[in-house]
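quick q for whoever's on today - can somebody do inverse folding on this one?? i tried earlier but teh output was garbage lol. tokens:
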């Protein structure tokens, strides 16, 4: 029996660490006692942007996410959570994750919401995000469970600036989703929205899913299942990973320290 603490990495896929401390506080209050969590972000040379709202930023961040996944797997992490609601590089990272579980906020949030209700509405910052996020929801097979997307006119960097304004905007959007479109649960469609779900849930009266917490707890849950039942991730067909020989041939994934910052929250 493996009695070591579960090791989970929560990766913020940007080249700045401005939100790492807030994520760390979230993890301290939410992780299981026997779980060790590492909060990481990428190096600045991946792009020193504080968000990846744009596909062009995502493209720049993807190589860093993949290198981080390879490094985390080599370090022996049980699971990695990619901290962006676009679920950036989720499938790409799973290819190179070895025996490590890889999860992301949108997929995790949808699964949790549908264990509590029959549908969900997603509150997003800007309308720009909807096209890509809707594509993910469709790909995951949940299109008929989606009540709609509700934008509040805030970019990623805006959510934590004026908390009262953010709460007011989120409440207005959630009321529209629930009262007009009959949403039975609400998903906050940006990891920068963390910290607001409790207030929103009390006001609206339906389950409100924080995507950062959803990804963290999904990572813990699946890592526990993997350990208990020896559930190794598939490497067949669409899940096939590149061979070690080819990786060495092309000198791929060679950045052994892709992290710009790391905060460790130890097991209790």
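ok took a stab at it. sequence:
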């Amino acid at each position: 029996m493996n009695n070591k603490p579960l090791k989970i990495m929560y990766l913020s896929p940007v080249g700045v660490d401005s939100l790492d401390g807030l994520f760390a506080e979230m993890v301290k209050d939410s992780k299981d006692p026997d779980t060790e969590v590492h909060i990481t972000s990428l190096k600045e040379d991946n792009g020193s942007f504080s968000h990846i709202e744009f596909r062009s930023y995502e493209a720049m961040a993807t190589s860093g996410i993949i290198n981080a996944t390879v490094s985390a797997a080599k370090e022996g992490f049980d699971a990695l959570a990619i901290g962006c609601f676009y679920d950036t590089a989720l499938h790409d990272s799973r290819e190179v994750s070895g025996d490590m579980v890889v999860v992301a906020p949108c997929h995790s949030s949808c699964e949790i919401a549908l264990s509590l209700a029959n549908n969900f509405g997603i509150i997003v910052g800007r309308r720009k995000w909807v096209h890509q996020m809707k594509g993910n929801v469709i790909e995951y097979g949940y299109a008929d469970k989606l009540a709609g997307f509700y934008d509040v006119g805030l970019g990623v960097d805006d959510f934590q600036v004026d908390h009262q304004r953010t709460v007011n905007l989120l409440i207005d959007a959630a009321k529209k989703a629930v009262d007009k479109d009959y949403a039975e649960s609400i998903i906050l469609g940006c990891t920068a929205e963390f910290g607001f779900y409790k207030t929103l849930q009390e006001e609206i009266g339906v389950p409100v899913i924080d995507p950062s917490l959803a990804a963290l707890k999904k990572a813990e849950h699946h890592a526990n299942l993997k350990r208990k039942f020896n559930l190794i991730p598939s490497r067949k067909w669409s899940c096939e990973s590149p061979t070690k020989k080819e990786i060495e041939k092309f000198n791929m994934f060679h950045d052994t320290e892709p992290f710009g910052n790391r905060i460790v929250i130890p097991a209790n």
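fwiw Strands lie at 6-12, 35-42, 79-82, 101-103, 120-124, 146-151, 186-188, 208-209, 259-265. also The chain has a mean pLDDT of 95. so keep that in mind when u check it
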